[in-house]
Design brief:
Layout (H helix, E strand, L loop, with lengths): L1 H28 L5 E3 L6 H10 L10 E8 L6 E9 L2 E2 L3 E6 L4 E6 L12 E2 L12 E2 L4 E2 L33 H6 L5 H37 L6 H7 L13 H6 L4 H5 L5 H7 L9 H11 L2 H8 L15 H8 L10 H13 L1 E4 L1 E8 L5 H9 L12 E10 L6 E3 L2 H4 L10 H8 L10 E2 L9 H4 L71 E2 L6 E7 L18 E7 L24 H15 L6 E6 L8 H13 L14 E3 L8 H14 L5 E4 L1 H13 L4 E3 H10 L7 H14 L4 E2 L6 E3 L2 H9 L5 H4 L8 H10 L1 E3 H8 L8 H10 L4 E4 L2 E3 L16 E3 L3 E5 L4 H14 L3 E2 L1 E2 L2 E2 L5 E6 L2 E9 L10 E10 L6 H20 L10 E4 L13 E3 L7 E4 L6 E4 H5 L6 H12 L9 H28 L5 H8 L8 H7 L15 H10 L21 H16 L7 H22 L4 H11 L4 H37 L1
Parallel strand pairs: 11-16, 11-17, 14-15, 17-18, 18-19
Antiparallel strand pairs: 1-3, 2-3, 4-7, 5-6, 8-9, 10-20, 12-13, 12-16, 21-23, 22-23, 24-26, 25-26, 27-34, 28-34, 28-35, 29-32, 30-31, 32-33, 33-34, 35-36, 37-38
Helix pairs in contact: 1-4, 20-22, 28-29, 32-35, 32-36, 32-37, 32-38, 32-39, 35-36, 36-37, 37-38
Keywords: Membrane, Transmembrane, Transmembrane helix
InterPro entries: HEPN_DZIP3, P-loop_NTPase, WH-like_DNA-bd_sf
């Protein structure tokens, strides 16, 4: 009875709500139905037609229900309606606007209009007399007549989500008459009561069903104490995919997620088991995290709400923990928040021009060899033939799947849909873009791709893309558009360049006799038909990457572990986690050789934690579950076993609701799995983020180029993009930002530090590396080939010769792009360049380290970097980066390089650096069971230079930080320790790691060893700690920061570049002048060419054209400024494609282009007074080095000046020498300024003479 009364009360409450809503709705309708329009009538006749169309009152006799057409108060769109109240008289100097959310009109002061502001009193329904009150810029939210309103290149009415009303009809005035008449029928008064009645019926049905279900469960428990084992409850126990973003779950949802009744009612487990199960820890919605989010965001929320996208152009919080939450609130890519203010401002400008939302997911299928990864991919694709072969490398299934219409699951895309890019225009953008193609600075053309569906809803048809209120994408890249270029000393027609400096100088080595760049296009391409596509079905795509399980292929996996990805870890359910996974690595003696299945799972999750995200979701797929019939209970038990093997922080990636088991010949759980994929991809923070609409054009160009090219240079791509439009301002920055985004989303491979090389075909690049890192199975096919010994060098020692590379790549087009591919692999730390004909591939090395080679050496203590999971790829990359970037070379004994599977010995400045990876499974190291260890050694009786070792510690510290923290982090690696004994690495002496925190006292009592001993901390740390003299000097220098030569890192960078320019670079230009004009011939040549040298300074003229006699020197007394003048004007060197005095193309490696680069670098250094940041230093240094390398080839002197450049990079800087070089540069700057003044005086006199 009580229950019936409760239901009756509920019905009455619902009816009251409906009546209340109808009452409110009536108030809304007092304004009439509001329609969005593109323009308002401009004369009385058109105004009357619009009034008749909406059935508004006509004639002067009536003052109510008059037709009105006004801008919205936020100035984003125009609105028309019948104003049912009395029309208002408006005073002069005022326009009128409509406040949509309050359904009232308001005045707007137009005194700032340049023209068109009403200068008389008028009635509100007579606004057609003042067209300026209608003309708005919807992107800038201003009237076009206002002086402060600068028109944008997109003259469209872009609608903001935040301004849309529930009762707004989104049609426009250009509809047909039939459409207009249809709008007169108001369905809301009919629909609302019907919806209310249906809602009451649904509520009653739900209450009745829940009551019945609860009673059934209650009596079932009372009788049996546990649920029935019938099929229905068994199905209820099966794990279903869930909406991860859903914060609340009722009992029914928990039941469907696998929380069966008997599990809920069983006795509570101990703390350890609860931790392992992750039932409480891994709940997606955690109150603690919400509290933390609120605490971290603080007042930022108000600023974000107030400023919208403009929030990015202000100073951001120093606490980077707020960045994910800020990005989510703004719906922008998180990477933008790490950019400089200058780059964020550029991005905001691009976004305000126009933006689109991106729905493109990326899933990585990972796991051991023969786990069933490829079979699983085939099953979800719906393939009937499940026959598979061993995957080598990575198979990329681009856009293979899409979300279905209600976004509840994934389905296979059609071939046509797979060809669409990740940036597709919404249907409503078609008309807008067609109208504005000629006006936009991005020159976007649009091509409508035919759709598979024949039905398009009016809502989709009339949809208009939203204005940029939030957005960005990708990682920071340093963009420098400063125009601090050197004044041309010789050509009066050349002034300081106004062009944007192209900082993306080609870094790829181009051998003599080849084309100007290996990244140039194979042939000209017609881009006239290169257009972005339109998705009428609002496609939301998912790309799958299937990774090879053999350990040899792990070297390239980290490249694809994007922060935007989620992961599918496939595990063979029949395998005991404690048994050795022989399928993944068959060779004995390797670090992988004795790995168990649990070790591999821990490795995969650790790699995700390092290279993707610390919270990246992982879906567990248990294969080969035929024996248990894919029983979810068995899957849950196996999941618990896995959790027991993992450290706490890796459990954050797992969730018991994301586990599924599969049978090869059964479809069981496949649909649930696909639903989970859809829910997971939608839960990611980047899903639906906004990017500039100009990037759709960039992606279309990349797709077109990819049809016939696998690699392209940045300069060529920039040229193609620029040719689409005459407006080239900010083209380079916009393209660079877009490329970084496309790299993050897996469309291309691009690194700003590699500069000019863009890999268009990612699968092609993977296949190229796959041909190099074959495993034991794929090695068998090469045994019958000639020169098999050289293949053995690669397979056993990791030494890749140019001869072997030719054979490996001969049957493909890889070799013709050899330089581009190898250079990209170098910068991704996949291989190290030992010479122009030899490379080292660490992941192929299988040699055992003989510690006896260091028997006759003095050794340092061992510096240890600690890890929770095996950092084998990090170890490989550290070795490569030490060779490629720190100038180290493999140490040789008896002409054999000392490079081994787990140990590498490198030579560095009369010392040797041992880098090793260790597996410390002893109990004292259970929190950090793995370490990368560094030890310095020299041959006896030499002593180790502790100044060098302390600098090495800093360098390696920084390199490891980059390798382990990923692209979004700027933190240094913090887990550091030392071995307790001073012994040669590999010697069979027991030792343990002591962390830096444990070494606070002068002595440490080591109880970790089986025989306790005292460790003298000073003797261990002295090798890695700066001595007192160094520390004192540094502190003293910094305290005297007012001195112009205070020892700061920025000033040291600047002084190092100055030293390079005034030393090796100047000497190289002298050698170049000697090549073209031998000193003995110089007097005769200079006499013939003296007419071309009118702009010499007085000292320069006296030097080479003395009043008496002739020049008799050997060019050693010429500075870089004079050398540039002579090389340009006297030597007959052909000008580069941009002309002398201008910045050359990045891919131009001509002699004149490289001379120009040295001039520009020298001037950039000269114009800098505040020092040079590390980012600028690395960029300038790489540009100088590339030019020096090319000029060395022209001189035919081997690597003479290249070696000098590398030496200065790593040499110590002396303060006395720094001041000397700085003084020289300042003197040269003074000379340049004198030249400038003289030139200006001459130019002024010339103009006066011409005027007279």
């Amino acid at each position: 009875m009580l229950e019936c009364r409760g239901k009756g009360c509920l019905v009455l409450v619902c009816l009251a709500i409906i009546l209340r809503s109808n009452e409110h709705y009536g108030k809304v309708l007092a304004m009439g139905i509001v329609h969005r329009v593109r323009d308002c009538p401009r004369d009385e006749k058109e105004w009357q037609k619009a009034s008749d169309r909406l059935n508004c009152t006509s004639g002067d006799s009536s003052t109510m229900n008059k037709y009105h057409c006004l801008p919205a108060d936020n100035l984003t769109t125009l609105l028309e309606f019948c104003y049912t109240r009395t029309r208002t008289q408006v005073v002069e100097g005022q326009c009128m606007v409509f406040i949509e959310r309050k359904h009232i009109v308001n005045n707007y002061d137009c005194s700032m209009f340049k023209e068109g502001c009403p200068n008389i009193w008028y009635f509100m329904d007579q606004m057609y007399r003042f067209p300026a009150c209608f003309e708005i810029d919807p992107l800038l939210h201003c009237y076009k007549a206002e002086a402060t309103c600068q028109p944008t290149t997109w003259n469209v009415s872009v609608l903001s989500d935040s301004s849309q009303s529930t009762f707004v009809n989104k049609t426009s005035t250009n509809l047909t008459t039939a459409d207009r008449n249809n709008r007169e029928i108001d369905p809301l008064p009919i629909l609302l009561p019907l919806i209310g009645i249906l809602g009451i019926a649904v509520i009653i049905a739900i209450l009745a069903w829940k009551n019945k279900w609860r009673r059934k469960r209650f009596f079932g428990r009372k009788e049996t104490g546990r649920p029935d084992g019938n099929d229905e409850e068994l199905r209820a126990f099966e794990m279903r995919p869930i909406e991860i973003s859903q914060p609340e779950r009722d009992d029914e949802e928990s039941r469907l997620l696998g929380l069966e009744v008997n599990e809920i009612s069983q006795p509570e487990r101990d703390d350890e088991e609860s931790r392992l199960l992750g039932l409480e820890v891994n709940e997606i919605s955690q109150p603690e995290r919400d509290d933390e989010e609120s605490r971290l965001l603080g007042l930022e929320v108000n600023d974000i709400d107030r400023l919208g996208i403009d929030y990015l152009i202000h100073n951001l919080p120093s606490d980077h923990r707020t960045f994910p939450m800020i990005a989510e609130k703004l719906k922008i890519p998180q990477e933008i928040l790490y950019w400089s203010l200058k780059n964020r401002e550029k991005f905001v400008r691009s976004m305000k021009v126009g933006n689109i939302r991106v729905f493109n997911g990326r899933a990585m299928v990972i796991g051991c060899a023969r786990a069933g990864k490829t079979t699983l991919v085939k099953k979800i694709k719906g393939d009937k033939d499940l026959t598979t072969t061993s995957t080598s490398g990575i198979e990329i299934h681009s856009h293979t799947f899409k979300l279905n219409s209600d976004e509840s699951t994934i389905i296979v895309s059609t071939d046509e849909e797979k060809e669409k890019g990740c940036l597709c225009l919404a249907p409503g953008m078609l008309e807008i873009l067609e109208e504005n193609t000629q006006e936009t600075s991005f020159g976007v053309n649009v091509n409508v791709v035919p759709d598979q569906s024949n039905v398009i809803s009016p809502r989709e048809e009339n949809h208009i893309v939203d204005k940029a209120s939030s957005l960005p994408s990708s990682i920071e890249s340093t963009l420098n558009s400063n125009n601090d270029e050197v004044v041309d000393d010789t050509d009066p027609a050349v002034n300081e360049s106004d062009q944007l400096i192209n900082n993306l100088t080609a870094a790829a080595y181009v051998s003599a006799g080849t084309d100007r760049s290996n990244a140039t296009l194979e042939h000209n391409i017609d881009l006239n038909d290169c257009v972005p596509s339109v998705n009428r079905d609002n496609l939301k795509m998912l790309t799958l990457l299937d990774f090879a399980g053999h350990s040899a292929y792990y070297a390239c996996h980290h490249i694809f572990f994007s922060p935007r990805a989620f992961f599918i870890l496939v595990v063979d359910m029949t395998k005991d986690l404690s048994t050795v996974a022989t399928e993944a690595c068959r060779k004995e003696g390797l670090i992988y050789s004795n790995w168990t299945y649990a070790d591999y799972i821990k490795y995969w999750l650790g790699s995700i934690h390092t290279y993707s995200s610390k919270v990246a979701p992982v879906i567990l797929a248990f294969s080969h579950s035929e024996d248990n019939g894919a029983d979810p209970e068995k899957a849950l038990q196996y999941f618990r076993q896995i959790c027991k093997c993992l450290p706490q922080n890796l459990l954050d990636h797992l969730d018991k609701r994301r586990i599924f088991s599969f049978q090869k010949q059964s479809e069981k759980n496949v649909e649930d799995f696909k639903e989970c994929l859809a829910a997971t991809v939608k839960s990611q923070s980047h899903w639906g983020e906004r990017v500039p609409i100009s990037w759709t054009k960039h992606e279309a160009v990349l797709k077109k180029l990819k049809e016939s090219n696998n690699v392209v240079s940045f300069s060529d791509l920039l040229r193609y993009v620029s040719e689409t439009n005459d407006r080239k301002r900010n083209k380079e920055e916009d393209l660079l930002n877009a490329l970084i985004f496309f790299n993050d989303t897996g469309v291309i491979l691009f690194r700003s530090e590699i500069k000019d090389i863009i890999i268009l075909n990612v699968q092609w690049f993977v296949d190229a590396f796959k041909h190099i890192i074959f495993d034991e199975i794929h090695m068998e096919v090469m045994e019958d080939m000639r020169d098999f010994a050289e293949f053995q060098e690669l397979n056993e020692h990791g030494l890749l010769s140019s001869k072997v590379l030719i054979v490996l790549w001969q049957n493909s087009n890889f070799y013709q792009h050899k330089n581009s591919l190898v250079n990209h692999m170098k910068h991704l730390d996949m291989l190290a360049e030992l010479s122009k004909e030899l490379w080292y591939v660490p992941c192929m090395n299988k040699q055992k380290y003989p510690w006896e080679i260091l028997n006759n050496c003095n050794v340092s203590s061992r510096l240890c970097f600690l890890f929770e999971f095996l950092p084998f790829v990090i170890y490989h990359r550290l070795v490569v980066t030490c060779i490629n970037k720190l100038g180290m070379t493999p140490w040789k004994i008896s002409e054999r390089m000392c490079i081994y599977h787990k140990v590498t010995v490198l030579s560095y400045k009369d010392h040797r650096v041992l880098i090793a990876i260790c597996d410390n499974k002893e109990r004292p190291h259970r929190n950090f069971p793995y370490s990368i260890e560094i030890q310095i050694n020299v041959t006896k009786p030499r002593e180790i230079d502790t100044r060098l070792t302390s600098k090495l510690k800093e360098d390696i510290f920084e390199r490891l930080s980059v390798l382990t923290q990923g692209i979004l982090s700027s933190e240094f690696y913090s887990y550091v320790g030392y071995r307790c004994r001073l012994e040669t690495f590999g010697k069979n002496v027991e030792s343990h790691i002591i962390t830096e925190e444990e070494m606070s006292a002068s002595e440490y009592d080591c109880l970790k060893c089986s025989h306790p001993h005292i460790v003298h901390v000073g003797s261990i740390r002295r090798f890695w700690k700066k001595d007192e003299a160094q520390t004192h000097l540094t502190v003293g220098s910094r305290t005297s920061s007012s001195h112009p030569f205070a020892a700061t890192e920025e000033m040291t960078n600047l002084n190092r570049v100055s030293r390079l320019m005034l030393g090796p670079c100047t000497e190289q230009l002298r050698d170049l002048l000697r090549l073209y004009i031998p000193p003995a011939s110089f007097p005769a040549v200079i006499q013939r060419k003296r007419s071309q040298l009118k702009r010499l300074t007085e000292p320069q003229r006296k030097l080479i054209l003395p009043n008496s006699g002739v020049y008799s020197g050997n060019y050693d007394d010429m500075d870089i400024s004079l050398l540039y003048i002579l090389l340009r004007n006297v030597c007959g060197i052909q000008a580069h494609n941009k002309g002398w005095g201008n910045t050359p193309d990045s891919a131009d490696i001509s002699v004149s282009a490289n001379i120009e680069r040295l001039r520009l670098a020298r001037n950039r250094c000269s114009h800098t007074t505040e020092g040079m940041s590390n980012v600028d230093f690395n960029q300038v240094w790489s540009e100088i080095r590339a030019a020096v390398v090319d000029l060395d080839k022209v001189l035919g002197i081997g690597n003479k000046y290249q070696e000098a450049v590398d030496f200065i990079l790593n040499d110590t800087m002396d303060p006395v020498k720094d001041k000397h070089f700085r003084d020289q540069l300042l003197e040269q700057i003074k000379d340049i300024n004198d030249i400038r003044k003289k030139f200006e005086r001459i130019e002024g006199r010339t103009k006066k003479m011409m005027a007279n």
